[in-house]
Amino acid sequence: MPEVDRYRPEDQRGIEALYRRIFGADEAAASRLRWDWQYRRNPNNPNGAPLLWVVREGPTIIGHYAAMPVKLSLGGTEIDAAWGTDAMVAPERQRQGLGEELFRIWDRAVGASLGLGLPESSRQLLQKMRWPEVPPVFGLVKPLTRRAFRQPQWPMPINRVISAVTLPIVRVAARVRPLRAEVEPIRRFDSTFTELWERVAPRFALAVRRDAPYLNWKYIEPPHVRYSVAALKGENRYEGYAIYRHAQEPRGRVTLLIDFLADTSDDLGFKTLLRWVDAEARQADSDKIRCYAVHAGFRRLMRQSGYFQVRQPLALAVKINARDVPAGFYKDTDSWHITLGDSDQDR
After folding, report:
1. pLDDT, average across residues 50-59
2. In this structure, are residues 42 and 50 in contact, taking their beta carbons and an 8 Å threshold?
3. Residue 324's pLDDT is what?
4. Alpha helix locations (H) across 284-346?
5. Start-to-end CA span in the chain (Å)
6. CA separation (Å) from 229 to 35, 118, 212, 218, 241?
7. 64-98 per-position pLDDT tens digit
8. What is the 3-state secondary structure (H, E, C) of 161-216?
9. Which of 124, 137, 168, 189 has the CB geometry, 3.0–4.6 Å to 193, for a possible disulfide?
10. Could you give phi then psi for residue 78, rounded to 5 degrees?
11. How many other CB atoms are found less than 10 A from the CB of residue 68?
């Protein structure tokens, strides 16, 4: 009979073989590149060990579930939590309850279970398990050039018409605005960013702890992607940051605003960070800026800065196990802070 157990180092070759079977050689190679960073070097690992489970059938690995541990702040009170990331079961053993068993074991092991960008199969499984329903994370886009609204699935003649029709909107949204505070690029997060987190954490009903060790691991040390970081300077301390990168897409170039943090009452400071990213995007010849955000205050300031909500949201799953939450907690997410940088969505 299959046996579910915690990961052991000798399981690694069997996991890689299963990954190749399910996702192909290219995805397996990409997973190997980031695996050690993502799982073994995570500063939130309980007892320093990766939070992974495997399904063994004799000497063979036929299933695997990986979780990314984080500290989750609920209005300033922290609990242990984990993002569910890589879940897989051998094709010939699917639809036999192994995936559900892995999900239940993960859920029982953590103070809060989190999922972002879930595929349809995972969403259906969580519905079957009667997880709370949570609104998705909607995307926002700021157009910078007439190519911003082009879609790869549309023929080029249609894209040209869309570009011409939307050009007046683009010109208004993309107008240049001056910086109103001091911003500087940085290469590493120091202890002052932990102090920043401690100041702003109580303002969020739900957010992953964004202290210096986490930020360095998540955005400075990954081997598979390179980020730029801009820090908002105040008097003798930092007041916020923005993390972004530039990427080429089929119909143009995009700047991805991956993560950000500022005091929710500092409208001027947050808008200054957005204007810095605007300037960086123009310098990189991007056609648009794209980000995902939940917090209603940040989204309001982004709309004031020329961002538009777009379709294709990221599915979000949240289940708090370590404490009771108020009625309506899962429905009202306006004071939650979740971005594309959470979980492992940006690969």
Report:
1. 92
2. yes
3. 94
4. 296-304
5. 35
6. 23, 27, 13, 12, 7
7. 999 999 999 999 999 999 999 988 999 988 888 89
8. HHHHHHHHHHHHHCCCCCCCCEEEEECCCCHHHHHHHHHHHHHCCEEECCCHHHHH
9. 189
10. -105, 145
11. 23
> DSSP secondary-structure letter at 283?
H
Average pLDDT over residues 233-240: 93
Sole residue written with tokens 């702003």:
200
Largest CA distance in the chain: 65
Global pTM reads 0.90
As given in the structure block, the two tokens for residue 306 are 């020329």
Residue 48 host element (H or E): none
The two three-digit tokens of residue 117, written as one number:
């960008």
Q: State whether residue 69 is helix, strand or coil.
A: strand
- List Cβ neighbours of 208 (8 Å cut-off, separation of 6 or more): 70, 71, 72, 73, 81, 214, 338, 342
Backbone torsions φ then ψ of 188, nearest 5 degrees: -155, 150
Q: Which helix (H) or strand (E) holds 45?
A: none
Strands 51-57 and 112-116: unpaired
Distance CA 229, CA 34 (A): 20
Across 263-277, average pLDDT:
96
- Separation between Cα atoms, residue 131 and residue 55, nearest integer Å: 23
CA contacts within 13 A on the Cβ side of 83: 25
The CA–CA distances, whole Å, from 19 to 66, 275, 328 equal 12, 41, 39
**pLDDT tens digits for 142-196?**
999 887 777 777 777 776 777 777 777 777 777 777 677 899 999 999 999 999 9
The torsion angles phi and psi of 45, rounded to 5 degrees, stand at -60, 130
Residues in the chain: 347
* Residue 268, amino acid: L
Q: What gap in Å lies between CA 10 and CA 277, rounded to an integer?
A: 44
